Amino acid sequence: MQGLVCIGKYSQEDIETYKKICSNVIFLDMNIDPIHECCILLDFKNAVKDAVSYLSQKHTSIAYLGGKEIIHDKLYHDQRKEYFEHYCKKYNIDYSISEETFSIESGFNMTYELIKNKKLPSAIFAASDPIAIGAMRALKQYDIKIPEDISIIGFDNIETTNYTDPPLTTVFAPTFDMGFMAARQLFDAFKHNENISPIKILLPCFLIERNSCI
What we know:
Largest sheet: 6 strands, mixed
Strand content: 15-25%
Shape: elongated
Helix content: 25-40%
């Protein structure tokens, strides 16, 4: 096998297994620190900074709705949550954090808990669009208007976000470009008959403003 592109999260044992299979391995959407493999990631730091900064113009309380990823019984560290906490503190924003899975159902459940416990903030930052869509469904069920009563931002920019009610403000994640970059790295390695060097590549994300925020 000349090249291997691994998408998602893997344990160190998995990484070692893949390296035995192939000398040219690239990991997409997995932060490897310290850098000892080639990995291509999204720039979560500036993506979250842009989202929190955008919300901070009108809001002083934000809830983070995220998901947990478990790799061989170990919790994978999600940088989005880390940066969310950092920038909320920087902008003096009251915040809360809820985590389940990256699903519509979890988005609904986490938002329902906020409503039930009377802890609903004036804005929500969801770590994925499915979570945001679930949150919107819960808000609508309890007659909480978006964006009049609460603003919400998602993450990914899946096609469905154009057709939610209202259309969802979200962070565009260039997943296609991640794959293209991996293919180019492999092509260059094959062309020059070289192995891929350990390197971390960050791709920028962009806030897409629609109608779910004021």
